Amino acid sequence: MARPKEFAEAEVLQLAVEHFWEHGYEATSVRDLAHTMGITTASIYNTFGDKRQIYRKALDWYVEQSFGNRALRFGLKSPREAIGAFFAEIIERSLGDPKRKGCMLVNSALELAPHDVEFQRVVAEVLTQVEAFFRNCVERGQRDGTINDGPGSEDLARTLLATLLGIRVLARSRPERELLEGLIRPVFLLLDSRPNTKAPVA
Measuring CA to CA, which of 15, 28, 38, 106 is 20 to 30 A from 154? Predict the structure, then answer.
């Protein structure tokens, strides 16, 4: 009869998330994970698979907890308020990160995606979802008049996505409020501005 597990998978997976998030994929060994998770290497292989499989599960968990929950919460707000709240939370999380771990998804994009087709696809899918969240907010705001309808919604959504990634990368080396908020202020001005209109010719 198989011996029952003496640990909760969800709990030890969260410990793996924290380790990968802080140290990255390449610098982490299965032995490191076993020490952090408080289980044997055999238990890791039997439960989660190899290091690559653990990392994929950890990244999926991180994405769901971070982006999935955030999109659900902010999707209930007005469009312009949702975008503002999204970035306000990102900045606070970046400033409240004493170990400067950054964003695990962005870290994966920089460390693994350039040379790993599977993780390139995973990162691209999540970023597409984030872009879609921004585009939905922009389109709703353009319809109700709270967001500038001059630029196209796709262009504005991609600008917001690029700003988000820039904040997360820059915050790892310069976690300064004025710097990070300064990145988003011009984008908010673009969202709030209105296209120039000329008076009709008499």
Answer: 106
Its pTM surpasses 0.85: yes
The encoded tokens of residue 175 equal: 């976690």
Cα–Cα distance measured from residue 26 to residue 23, given in angstroms and rounded to the nearest whole number: 8
Amino acid at 54: I
Whether 127 and 71 have beta carbons less than 8 Å apart is answered as no
At 34-75, the pLDDT tens digits run 999 999 999 999 999 999 999 999 999 999 988 877 777 887
Whether residue 141 contacts residue 57, with contact meaning beta carbons closer than 8 Å, is answered with: no
Taking only the tens place, the pLDDT of each residue in 135-173 is: 999 999 999 999 999 999 999 999 999 999 999 999 999
User: CB neighbours of 153 closer than 8 A, spacing ≥ 6?
Assistant: 135, 138, 139, 142
Tokens at residue 119, please? 């993780």
What's the CATH superfamily of 59-192? Tetracycline Repressor, domain 2 (1.10.357.10)
| Distance, CA of 111 to CA of 148 (rounded, Å) | 36
